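Hi all, posting the design record for the shared folder.

TITLE: backbone redesign
STEP: 1 of 1
STRUCTURE INPUT:
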């Protein structure tokens, strides 16, 4: 059991949880995630390790309510327990001195760039971050991102905060002036795809973090299969970070929608588990 020590509301239906998990905190690196399960019959879902405190033995998870499991997690409070927490999982990004690194985070992609920005800044890079959301209320972790970056740009679709438009608009402006050494983009598939088309044109390496459906998170079930450079990869062990130019984003989008019907039934409380329990 993993105790929730603190819950902080970041935006409507988005919360940050500080969870007591000393063994995970000890080994966490930028790009890692956990698989969590809340009840014996419940499914497992992946969440990025947004931050950690090795001394306190805690990790920070950020959760946006999308459906049943994320909704249950967001209903928990400080003092409640998480039944299973498996991690750190995945392959972390390579943290070294690249030069100038531009990080783009969209929506709940922002927690996934926070630790990357921190670690890359500590490794001596010039860190420029661009975070975006639909509106001001959903633009989360601004102070944390400001501290983790040398320069932070904000964007909103409706113009309620920062630049009106997309994170990629700001990237295009920055790249018109100077060529970064590395771009990292985490967010919805269309955002990562748009980032890659910009970086490809300027021959800038771009790392994206893929979010296919994950079931076990340990490379055994094949659910998170993605195609990278024409080869099958498992995002949970080979990723979730990959060089974006090589990713088949169209396949990823279609595989993400495989279980829409079952997910809708689960939200309405009508999905009956077929696994025999
Ligand atoms: P459902 O109604 O079951 O599904 C809604 C949508 O969520 C689905 O259509 C699908 O696109 C996605 N989804 C559902 N189940 C899974 C699953 N098992 N694996 C992956 N995607 C799924 N969300 C956050 O809010 N914060 C994070 O830090 C975060 N980090 C992630 C890191 C990784 C590596 C991945 C792959 C996903 C991450 N997500 C994160 C997304 C999160 O896992 C899903 O929102 C969550 O699983 C939804 O479950 P649900 O039962 O609430 O929704
Ligand atoms: Fe099962 Fe990746 S989630 S192989
Ligand atoms: Mg679900």
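Okay, here is what came back for every position:
SEQUENCE:
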């Amino acid at each position: 059991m993993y105790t929730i020590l603190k819950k902080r509301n970041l935006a409507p239906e988005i919360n940050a949880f500080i969870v007591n998990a000393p063994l995970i905190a000890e080994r966490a690196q930028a790009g890692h995630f956990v698989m969590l399960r809340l009840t014996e019959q419940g499914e497992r879902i992946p969440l990025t390790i947004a931050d950690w405190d090795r001394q306190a033995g805690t990790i920070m998870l950020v959760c946006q309510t999308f459906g049943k499991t994320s909704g249950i997690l967001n209903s928990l409070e400080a003092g409640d327990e998480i039944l299973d927490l498996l991690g750190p999982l995945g392959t972390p990004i390579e943290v070294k001195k690249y030069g100038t690194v531009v990080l783009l985070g969209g929506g709940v992609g922002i927690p996934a760039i926070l630790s990357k920005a921190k670690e890359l800044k500590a490794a001596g890079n010039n860190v420029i971050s661009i975070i975006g959301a639909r509106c001001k209320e959903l633009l989360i972790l601004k102070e944390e991102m400001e501290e983790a970056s040398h320069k932070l740009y904000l964007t909103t679709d409706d113009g309620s905060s920062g630049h009106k438009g997309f994170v990629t608009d700001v990237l295009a402006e920055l790249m018109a002036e100077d060529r970064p050494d590395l771009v990292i983009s985490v967010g919805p598939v269309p955002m990562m795809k748009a980032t890659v088309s910009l970086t490809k044109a300027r021959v800038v390496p771009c790392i994206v973090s893929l979010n296919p459906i994950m079931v076990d998170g340990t490379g055994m079930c094949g659910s998170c299969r993605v195609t990278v450079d024409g080869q099958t990869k498992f995002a949970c062990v080979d990723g979730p970070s990959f060089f974006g130019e090589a990713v088949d984003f169209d396949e990823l989008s279609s595989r993400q929608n495989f279980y829409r019907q079952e997910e809708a039934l689960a939200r309405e409380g009508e999905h009956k588990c077929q696994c025999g329990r």
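COMMENT: The mean pLDDT is 94.
Let me know if anyone wants the other runs.
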